[in-house]
């Protein structure tokens, strides 16, 4: 049995279906008799790379149809996320849409707006009647892509992907810890809360190795970036910790002090997870068998260095 065809004569339903396709938002501009004209459109598409062609469409009921369909050219301005108000303005029947709007002539001669994500200035290649719209095909004579992220349109509403992504919570902050050891001792520093800690730093764009090297240099020590000793997530603080053992040459540290690597020696470490890690290191150092901890600040497992990966 053949399924019934969708009802294509419901304009609202058809518009809603078209709205499921996310588009950008543009303002199409031209000049007639020395005056700038423009309208908002999301029916924009590239057509060809060679020759460089694009298209937009304009409603046949538009008062500006003749100016665009019989003129010498037009520009397509791709709006940025900050230009929702400008989009709304050029979609309304306002007498002077360009009032208080900064623009300049593009290389072909049509208005190019300030603050857009990109613009294309075109000569009119062809105007093609198509139902209740006319398709304007333009040959690109100049263009520019700028840094501002583009404004989107989806299901009848504006969308700002870049601004939305920036406002979303990021992943956990990564903290690198340097467990600097020398002659059976470990370097501890003031944690700013009346207790002790190992040297720590936030990992920035430079990466873990650079952050670790900066920590070691800050304390005036010569130490190697040794093996990873613990990787754990602290859900309380939203942080991801990477602790590395850093064997150091004997020397007086700048800031902090060496203490005996023992349970008593690290008793004043404030953070419970860090203290437990150092107690484990003290126990493992006595027998010379080390492992790597994986888990959270509360629970996890130690994988011994001679173990294979857990299936």
SSE order, one letter for each helix or strand: HEEEEEHEHEEEEEEHEEEEHEEEHEE
Number of strands: 21
Count of alpha/pi helices: 6
Architecture per CATH nomenclature, i.e. the level-2 architecture of the largest domain = Roll
CATH class of the largest domain: Mainly Beta
Labels describing this entry:
single chain; 311 residues; alpha+beta; Pnp Oxidase, Chain A; 9-stranded mixed beta sheet; 6 helices; 18% helix; elongated; disordered C terminus; NADH-dep_flavin_reductase; Flavin_Rdtase-like_dom; riboflavin reductase (NADPH) activity
Structure description:
With 311 residues, the chain is α+β, with helices and mostly antiparallel strands. It folds into two domains: 11-162, Electron Transport, Fmn-binding Protein, Chain A (Pnp Oxidase, Chain A, Roll); 173-304, Nucleoside Triphosphate Pyrophosphohydrolase, CATH 3.90.79. Helix content is 18%, strand content 40%. Strands 13, 14, 15, 16, 17, 18, 19, 20 and 21 form a nine-stranded mixed sheet that branches. It has a seven-stranded antiparallel sheet with strand order 3-2-6-9-10-5-4. The two termini are 51 Å apart. Keywords: Oxidoreductase. GO terms for molecular function: FMN binding; riboflavin reductase (NADPH) activity.
């Amino acid at each position: 049995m053949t399924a019934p065809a969708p009802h294509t004569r419901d304009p609202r339903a058809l518009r809603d279906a078209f709205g499921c396709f996310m588009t950008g938002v543009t303002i199409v501009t031209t000049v007639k008799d020395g005056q700038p004209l423009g309208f908002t459109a999301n029916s924009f598409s590239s057509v060809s790379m060679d020759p460089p062609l694009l298209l937009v469409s304009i409603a046949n009921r538009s008062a500006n149809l003749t100016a665009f369909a019989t003129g010498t050219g037009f520009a397509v301005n791709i709006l940025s996320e900050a230009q929702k108000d400008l989009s709304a303005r050029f979609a309304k029947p306002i007498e002077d849409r360009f009032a208080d709007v900064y623009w300049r002539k593009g290389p072909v001669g049509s208005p190019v707006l300030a603050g857009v994500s990109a613009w294309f200035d075109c000569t009119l290649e062809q105007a093609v009647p198509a139902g209740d719209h006319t398709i304007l095909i333009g040959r690109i004579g100049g263009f520019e892509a700028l840094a501002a992220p583009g404004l989107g349109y989806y299901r009848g509403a504006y969308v700002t992907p870049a601004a939305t992504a920036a406002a979303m919570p990021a992943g956990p902050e990564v903290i690198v810890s340097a467990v600097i050891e020398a002659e059976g001792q470990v370097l501890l520093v003031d944690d700013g809360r009346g207790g002790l800690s190992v040297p720590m730093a936030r990992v920035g764009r430079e990466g873990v190795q650079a952050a670790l090297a900066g920590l070691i240099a800050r304390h005036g020590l010569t130490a190697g970036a040794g093996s990873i000793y613990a990787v754990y997530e602290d859900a309380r603080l939203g942080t991801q910790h990477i602790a590395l053992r850093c064997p150091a040459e004997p020397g007086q540290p700048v800031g902090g002090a060496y203490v005996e690597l023992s349970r008593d020696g690290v008793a004043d470490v404030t953070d419970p997870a860090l203290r437990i890690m150092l107690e484990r290191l003290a126990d493992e150092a006595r027998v010379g068998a080390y492992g790597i901890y994986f888990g959270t600040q509360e629970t996890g497992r130690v994988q011994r260095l001679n173990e294979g990966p857990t299936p």
